Amino acid sequence: MQDDMPTNSAQLGQSALTRRRFLEAAVATGIVTRIGAGESTTAAETDRPSSESKSLGKVVLNDDGNVFLTMSDDLGVADLRRYLKTYCQPGVSTVAYCVGDISWPTRYASRVGEEYGERVAGDDLKLLRVRRNLANFADEKGGYFGAALRILSELGKTTLASFRMNDAHYTSPDNPKASKFWRQHAQLALGATYGYYGGCLNYESELVRNHFFERVVEFAQLYPDIDGIELDAMRSPYFFPPGKGKEGAPLLTELVRRIKAALAEQAKRLQRPDYLLTMNAPLTPELALESGLDVAAWDEERLVDSLSVGPYQAYMNHAMEQWKELLTNGTPVFAYVGCSPHSGQYLGPAEYRAAAANAYGAGADGVYLFNYPCLFELALQQPTPPEEVKTELPDLRSWRQGDFSKVGEVLNEIGNADSLRGKNKRFLFYFNEPTGYRHHIRERAVLSRTADGANLTAHFRCYDDFAAASAITLRFKVENVMRGERFEPSLNGHSIKASQHQVRYAANGRDTRVHTVNLGPYVEYEIAVEPSQLEKGENQLDVRPVRLVPELETQINLREIELLVEYPQ
């Protein structure tokens, strides 16, 4: 041991450590040893008293860990605190802060991975920005993540270190941001069958599974005061070759079991509460098992403390009863709600309220907000004086976005179903063009023009107090139609009177000059809905073609169903 190396936790706290010296000091004091064996931590390294594990609460907010580092140049601890305080509202109980993936370099000194700061920026401005911002945290104990996790804890939040299990962002041989491990084992990638996600590594390989295990366990040893670990299998749910998910599921279950045991061993050694272990998974049990995620086995063994389920995009149609029936030991299930219903379009206050109301109505135990801080990526596209770094979310309606200035306040409402009553909501359904990826929204409402007697039919759930509303408006688009074509909508078998609706036609559809998502020529319906026409729960919208142009063969699509429920204010 070097003479000038701190030898206990008190000395660690008093010493100004670089990220590299943080790791070296950790090794010297016994925080890090050979992964998964022998002494790894001692009770002296944490000040946390022995008590029960912290609660996840009702609202878990996910931060990708990268938004802050790319917000602007020359950021430091004071900027980080201001940023975290914007979403650490009293209503947010837990923050899952993303700390890495096996395809990324690490943003902390590591014996298992390759540190981010060792990479060359070249002509990549944002890569250089991130390196410089990370360097500004060199004197903080634990570097950037040490500062972030400490501030979150000081703000009263349960803190989870979130690990993306198979992220595809950097998975190409020529990408300078790909980790050394990924570059050395690129031959283990799942391949072109999975399209964009083909660079995800094959978890049939023991080498891949062990590397992920070592990354997780090393982080827990370096940062023992975290409250738990999140295994984010939604980034991305591709672990095995096509058709081999169910066969490979026991391998992933054993990996989860090993991580659970390693965390339990460390907690016992530190005489601290058990670490929480949570997991994210695709929308349905079938899709999860197709991915190799045997959630029923995890529940049977009580391996995870909660499960968050949903598709990658913003979604408000969760069938929670499927999960409640499967998880017989009562593992809590959160509704996973992405930040965006469309590429480049983000949720605002009315949408977050709607998502939460539907989650609780369907039986969810809480709400999980994936990538919530991506709103800041939008906010910082608005020019501001260069002397300041704004952390307030602005009104971006003049930029063809929403008014995000009040989103932070809504975080205090969505943790309680009662607090959502009487508040304006905007429910969104069928907003995505299906891609074929298993963790994307798959719902489609389509009609072949040659199908005699067929309707466009969409199913959606809505849990709200319709009778108390001052106005209920239903909007939807029928795409790929000509101006003279006619349709007749009905809702739950109730005909829509002509006096209830307005019809508008967009002859040129929509392209990226006005919106990030293209549409063919469409007719838009806006209907003033009577409360008696809606059901609390399952609803069905039918659109019957009355007159079609016989020469036209293109498929008709029902798109972008919006239900706006407004209350007296």
Which SSEs are present, and which pair or pack?
Elements (H helix, E strand, L loop, with lengths): L8 H6 L4 H11 L29 E5 L3 H5 L5 H11 L6 E8 L23 H11 L7 H12 L3 E7 L15 H5 L21 H17 L5 E5 L12 H26 L5 E6 L3 H6 L4 H7 L4 E4 L10 H7 L6 E5 L11 H13 L4 E4 L4 H6 L27 H4 L14 E5 L16 E2 L8 E7 L8 E9 L6 E6 L2 E2 L5 E6 L15 E7 L8 E11 L8 E11 L3
Parallel strand pairs: 1-2, 1-8, 2-3, 3-4, 4-5, 5-6, 6-7, 7-8
Antiparallel strand pairs: 9-18, 10-18, 11-17, 12-16, 12-18, 13-14, 13-17, 15-16
Helix pairs in contact: 4-6, 8-9
Walk me through this protein's architecture.
By secondary structure, the chain is an alpha/beta fold. The chain has two domains: 9-428, TIM Barrel (Alpha-Beta Barrel); 444-566, Jelly Rolls, CATH 2.60.120.260. It has 15 helices and 18 strands. Strands 1-2-3-4-5-6-7-8 form an eight-stranded parallel barrel, surrounded by four helices. Strand 7 (333-337), helix 13 and strand 8 (366-369) form a beta-alpha-beta unit. Helix 8 runs parallel beside helix 9.
